[in-house]
Amino acid sequence: MRSIDALRRLLYAVLIVTLTLLGTGCDLEDSNTANGWVTPDQMYERALTFEELGVQYWARSWYHKAAEAGHPIAQVRLGFLYRYGRADLLDDPYETHRWFLRVAQGSAPMVLADFGVQYGEGPDETVRDPHEAEYWFRRAVPSCQAAAVQGDLEAQTLLGGLYGASAGVEQNRAMAMELWQDAAQQGYAPAQLVLGRLYWHEKAYEEASPWLVQAAMQNLPEAEYLLSDLYQFGRGVEPDHEEALQWLRRSADHGYEIAQRQLRGMETLGLLD
Known about the structure:
Elements lengths: L1 H21 L17 H14 L2 H13 L3 H13 L8 H12 L4 H12 L9 H20 L3 H13 L7 H13 L3 H13 L3 H12 L4 H13 L7 H13 L3 H12 L5
Helix pairs in contact: 1-6, 1-8, 1-10, 2-3, 3-4, 4-5, 4-6, 6-7, 7-8, 8-9, 9-10, 10-11, 11-12, 12-13, 13-14
């Protein structure tokens, strides 16, 4: 289960980078922007925002808009919402089948891998189905391989995640590391985060720090948080409490809940200026 969780976090990092490159800056309740249109990616981002805020009506509305506009991951999410009666939706086999079928007709590596993660790391134990998860992971592998050969860094990083998690393919850490390092050296932030996190967990802090710095400079909140930890405790870098606090605040500003909780705790204890 831990390996699937690592793959889930990798997918989330990829999504953050994609949405950051797109940007929005428009009214969340308005389907129009200054240019007269909201992209499917922006619709999906809004759905995620409302779901995080617990505003189920608007989350459902934007998931529908994004899914109807062809956003494949929104289609995955909507299918699961219908299947398990989430977001004020009744369990509806017809709608579940309709959205899952639309997803199945696509072959985007991230979508197929995300489908596997949804079954492997469902919102509760009743949702999880390891056989379904493995089926979708196996479908993701050839799509990732084909896209990676064409130089797609997202697919290359995801393929590394599949090898690392033994998801749809036999586990091969050496292959995973090779794929991640190649993508990271080309500046792809999720791959940099994967390497930084991996080295951090192995307490190889000097190897972790340069990758975390590069990922943090591209605004990945988990990288910012881990970099704060390195500076706070002098792990692989010279200790610098001001630098640690700066990165902790950046991580919190970018929505990382652990950083937000830590800042609230520090404020309660009077440790902040």
